[in-house]
UniProtKB/TrEMBL annotation:
<comment type="similarity">
    <text>Belongs to the ParD antitoxin family.</text>
</comment>
<dbReference type="InterPro" id="IPR022789">
    <property type="entry name" value="ParD"/>
</dbReference>
<protein>
    <recommendedName>
        <fullName>Type II toxin-antitoxin system ParD family antitoxin</fullName>
    </recommendedName>
</protein>
<keyword id="KW-1277">Toxin-antitoxin system</keyword>
<dbReference type="Pfam" id="PF03693">
    <property type="entry name" value="ParD_antitoxin"/>
</dbReference>
<dbReference type="InterPro" id="IPR010985">
    <property type="entry name" value="Ribbon_hlx_hlx"/>
</dbReference>
<dbReference type="GO" id="GO:0006355">
    <property type="term" value="P:regulation of DNA-templated transcription"/>
</dbReference>
<dbReference type="InterPro" id="IPR038296">
    <property type="entry name" value="ParD_sf"/>
</dbReference>
Length: 89
């Protein structure tokens, strides 16, 4: 079966980078591997497309806030330290 898809420029560049790195022999190999992983995770871990969409809705605005400077990222260790401090109190 042959399917033609259009990719946004950013994804196209990622695919090209993987092929140019020598990890994959063609763009088709990259896409096949990505789809295998997507469906494997979806089936084995009961992650459904609606779950992924929910994650995008939650994370998307926060990522945009970081990008536009209205929020900052915290180091993972700092978050764990803060959590530990709250549990001790």
């Amino acid at each position: 079966m042959t399917i033609h898809v259009s990719l946004p420029e950013a994804l196209e560049n990622m695919v090209k980078d993987r092929v140019e790195s020598g990890v994959y022999g063609s763009a088709s190999e990259v896409v096949r591997e990505a789809l295998r992983r997507f469906f494997h995770v979806s089936e084995d871990n009961n992650i459904h497309p609606e779950d992924i969409e929910h994650i995008r809705q939650v994370v998307g605005p926060r990522l945009e806030a970081v990008k536009n400077g209205t929020a900052t990222l915290k180091d993972g260790e700092a978050v764990f330290d803060e959590t530990d401090d709250m549990l001790v109190e």
